Amino acid sequence: MVQVYVLLSLLDGATYVGMTMNLARRLKEHNGGSNRYTKGHRPWKVIYTESHVNWSEARIREKFLKTTAGKSYLKEIGILI
User: Fold this and answer.
1) Facing residues of 5 across strands?
2) In CATH, what number does 2-76 get?
3) What residues have CB less than 8 Å from 5, skipping those under 6 apart?
4) Which helix (H) or strand (E) holds 17?
5) Please, what is the Cα angle at 33 between 19 and 66, to 5 degrees?
6) Using CA of residue 63, residue 68, residue 41, residue 24, what is the dihedral sign?
7) Whether pTM exceeds 0.85
8) What does the domain layout of the chain look like in residue ranges?
9) Residue 5: which of 81, 58, 78, 72 has the closest Cα?
10) pLDDT digits (tens, 9 = 90+) for 17-33
């Protein structure tokens, strides 16, 4: 299963959308400074996840959640303010 996830920065409220096969490892990488964008907004916590059966479905969903419509969806379901 491929996880699509949304992270929230506890520092400044920024969000990050990504996908992975191992969410615990990926969160550790984000909080460890391995990603250029997320490094400056540490620490992060997971606020939303979705499971998908394959990489291509997960990628479509990840791309959607990064759009304005995707952010509106996350607001509608109470994930984002």
Assistant:
1) 18, 49
2) 3.40.1440
3) 17, 18, 19, 20, 23, 26, 46, 48, 49, 50
4) strand 15-20
5) 35
6) negative
7) yes
8) 2-76
9) 58
10) 999 999 999 999 999 99
